[in-house]
Amino acid sequence: MANVIDTLIVKLGLDNDEFSGKIDNAIKKTDDLTQSSDDLSDSLKKAATFGTFFGNVMYKAMEMVVSVA
């Protein structure tokens, strides 16, 4: 498949430095977006974990208050 794409690039005259630079730039931007997405996913997981922990602490605190009252 890569050979077909390479052949098309050459036949269409797109095998120049300007086009190659644009492809490299697009790949870099895609990689940057992927990294940003991964970072956001990690942050959301941490927030969910903290939310669950905080919820459990509050639930236990309410149990203690109810059992004392």
Describe this entry's structure for a reader.
The protein is mostly helical and 69 residues long. The protein has one domain. The protein is built from 2 helices and no strands. The chain has helices at 2-11, 17-68.
Please state the overall shape, judged from the principal axes of the Cα atoms: rod-shaped
Separation, N- and C-terminal Cα atoms: 73 Å
Q: Roughly what fraction of the amino acids lie in strands?
A: under 5%
Number of domains: 1
Enumerate how many helices there are, as a single number: 2
Return residue spans where pLDDT drops below 50 for at least 5 consecutive residues.
Answer: none
Sheet with most strands: none
Q: Whole-number radius of gyration?
A: 26 Å
In N-to-C order, the SSE pattern is HH
Mean of residue pLDDT values: 84
What is the chains' assembly state?
single chain
Count of strand segments: 0
Helix content: over 70%
Structural class: mainly alpha
Brief rundown of the structure:
The chain has one domain. The protein has two helices and no strands.
SSE layout and pairing:
Elements: H1 2-11, H2 17-68
